[in-house]
Amino acid sequence: MTVATPGSFEGPGLQPQGWLRYFSFSLDHKVIGLQYLVTGFLFYFLGGALAGVIRTELASPISDFVSRNTYNEVLTLHGTVMIFLWIVPVVNGAFGNYLIPFYVGARDMAFPRLNAVAFWLIPPAGLLLISSYFLAGGAAQSGWTAYPPLSLTTPALGQVIWILSVLLLGGSSIFGAINFIATILKLRRPGLKLMQLPMYCWAMLGTSILAVLSTPVLAGTLVLLSFDIIAHTGFFNPALGGNVVVYQHLFWFYSHPAVYIMVLPAFGLVSEILPVHARKPLFGYTTMVYSIMGIVVLGLIVWAHHMFTSGTPPWMRLFFTIATSFIAVPTGIKFFNWLATLWGGKLALNSAMLFSCAFIVNFVFGGITGVALAQVPFDIHVHDTYFVVGHFHYIVYGGTVFVIFASVYHWYPKFTGRMLNESLGRLHFLLTFIGFNLCFAPQHWLGLNGMPRRVAEYDPSFTTLNQVSSVGALLMALSTLPFLINVIMSAFNGKIAGDNPWKALTPEWLTSSPPPVENWTGPAPLVQHPYGYGEAVAALDLRSASGEQIWSGNQR
Amino acid sequence: MSTTTPGSASSALDASDQALAAPHAAGHSEEHVDARMFGLATFLVADAMTFAGFFAAYLTFRAVNPLPEGANFERELLLPTINTALLLVSSVTFHRAGSSLRRGESSACRNWLLLTVGLGALFLAGQMVEYFNLPFGLTDNLFASTFYALTGFHGLHVTLGVMCILIVWWQARAGGRLTRDEHFGLEAAELYWHFVDGIWVVLYGILYLL
Predict the structure, then answer these.
(1) Do A108 and B7 touch (CB under 8 A)?
(2) How far is B154 from chain A (nearest CA, A)?
(3) Residues 90 through 119 of chain B touching chain A, CB cutoff 8 Å
(4) CA distances from B91 to A214, B103, B194 (A)
(5) What digits encode the pLDDT tens for the residues A378-417?
(6) Is A32 in the B-facing interface, judged by CB distances under 8 Å?
(7) Partner A contacted by B136 (CB < 8 A)
(8) A219 and B54 in contact by Cβ < 8 A?
(9) Angle separating helix axes A402-416 and A95-104, nearest 10 degrees
(10) 3-state DSSP call for residue B74?
(11) Contact (Cβ atoms closer than 8 angstroms) between residue A506 and residue A272
């Protein structure tokens, strides 16, 4: 890990070139984006291995694979790694850094150095978190939610390291968000209006607003929690007069928006991928923008639906049920817009498109169970059961992770200049889709029948469904093999992609693959119709024709 | 902190692209929008949300967790009120420092900055005196813990602010990097200082008057 000396920041020639720059304090947004992406995938494989431990343990009703304490540690690390080190950094940091400067017509982010700092907070935070597993007392055992009093009674060292690590990652997320907001609002190329931006910009603007408003609340809360552990204050310790429900309110004020921090960028990415491979304009651009902003506002006022069994008063239950149900409206608008984008299009069913379509299916299923969970009577029945685990994974895996894979298939040619192998891609998709549904669909049945989550043992009557789920997890683990072989082999042997293999109209395709250091050798193109697809597009010179001309058939 | 614009700071360039990297190269002026104040303001929104979380916690504790019998949460009023006045005056002196620099009077600017530092240091000293004289400690009861967490977190902000002003004071010397035309550092420190003062006014109302 080489970090450039401070003196070299100013000098253009002093930054490392070639492969070495990916290990450096590079200020290039494309390098930083790929740093986020590869680091994120390393943590994904780690978190996946931890999930493998969980599913192996749960293949039998008794605790036989690891000890109960180890199971708790593995469960906590799995959740924390997957959320804070894989999904949030990749879906925001990786694709955001790579794409946003292209989309606004800039040569880099607004604050390149802050950008590099935000990335370089992540590897130490991740190593810190993992290291706690090997220390005396082991890693934190209180789940990714770290609810007191559980987090106050489990071994202190692991919990404090967990807090430190999450604080670093929260800082990284806030710095990233400030950068995205400033880049989108302040660095737009002259002549480019807000309502002409590709949809991913809007998704990242909304996400960043959520991150700036809610992440600091989590940071402050975790500082108070660490005081409870280290200095024996009693903020959240009932034995000292404290209040555990206040922790839950503050925690979910961040962690519900965090779901949107994970899924809104995925909405944006899929809105970029679908029009390209369906050869049609994105349906309902304006409604899409307003529904993203609607989700941002509603996302901030629904947190207590995680707390229906925490003694919340009836008026609070009523309010949060209604507010949560309202989120189905903007989300539904987006869903129907995606369907309408596909409707009548010339679909290219390649890996990127298959993963995107599977996202729509999975996400709708997760969304429907989400609306169900917002209803108090139903929620009380399935609270803290595997139903919640199933719902959550349909949103973050079936939703976001599917989109991350779709995005890798879509943008890999831009990242590397080479195409991925399509057969391996489809094999990856097939294994992932079957494995995912096999793994998580049975968990809804388990939850409805009362199997509690986060426990290493269960009633033997749940054995069969748990074994089905574990087989699904095994398929998901196997599915990463064709993917890994594909991305590594294609980097050396893949078909040369050319500048614009998909004949796409968004600005990142209107430059070479991979792009030059400052994105364009000439001036940045002014793309006012990023979704102007039509049938005659192959016949046109994309650099000189606007999307409107292509779509209306009004060729020059 | 660099005085170069963000656009040029990004120049991790090939030698062949040097022409594009020149900070004020003709035809590329659109890339050098100065978003630094905007970025700082966004950061302060995030910082304000941290305080908002603490305030929400304190108010909820006050509303639903009555103190047990015999618990002591008696605060002073005189010293914090004087401290409030000190901070408000320091906002005015900082503003005068800024206007002096914009008029090109850098020695007047430096004097106003020193006065601001003095007021900030007095505030911190007053806070310490208050800490040593309060009848409750950090772990005595829930309100006491929250009191120290909130005032301590704010005191940390004031300390950072004082250090920033000292840096700005040094940079505003004759031949320093702060000039009449390039004074981002001073404006940033000023915005931050006003923010810290504003937070204190809210904190004073909630912690001492309520």
Answers:
(1) yes
(2) 12
(3) none
(4) 28, 19, 6
(5) 999 999 999 999 999 999 999 999 999 999 999 999 999 9
(6) no
(7) no
(8) no
(9) 60
(10) coil
(11) yes
Beta carbons of B61 and A27 less than 8 Å apart:
no
Q: Angle A82-A83-A84 (CA atoms, 0-180°, nearest 5)?
A: 105
Look up the ipTM and state it. 0.89
Grouping H, G, I as helix, E, B as strand and the rest as coil, residue A457 is: coil
Q: Are residues A96 and A206 in contact, defined by beta-carbon separation less than 8 angstroms?
A: no
Chain A contact for B26 (CB, 8 A cutoff)? no
Give yes or no for a contact between A496 and A417, defined as CB atoms under 8 angstroms apart. yes
Q: Which domains, and CATH codes, for chain B?
A: 36-66+74-209 (1.20.120.80)
Q: Is B138 on the interface with A (CB under 8 A)?
A: yes
The span from the CA of A57 to the CA of A311, in Å, is 33
Angstroms from B107 CA to nearest CA on chain A = 31
CA distance A55 to B207: 50
How many CB atoms sit inside 10 A of residue A19's CB?
Answer: 7
Whole-number Å distance between alpha carbons of A173 and A28: 18
**What are the chain A neighbours of B7 within 8 Å (beta carbons)?**
107-108
- Quick: pLDDT tens for A268-327: 999 999 999 999 999 999 999 999 999 999 999 999 999 999 989 999 999 999 999 999
Alpha helix ranges (H) inside chain B: 6-9, 18-21, 36-64, 78-102, 106-133, 142-171, 184-204
Contacts of A216 in chain B (CB under 8 A): 46-47, 49-50, 53
**With contact defined as beta carbons under 8 Å apart, do A40 and A82 qualify?**
no
| The pair of three-digit structure tokens given for residue A241, joined into one six-digit string | 């007069």
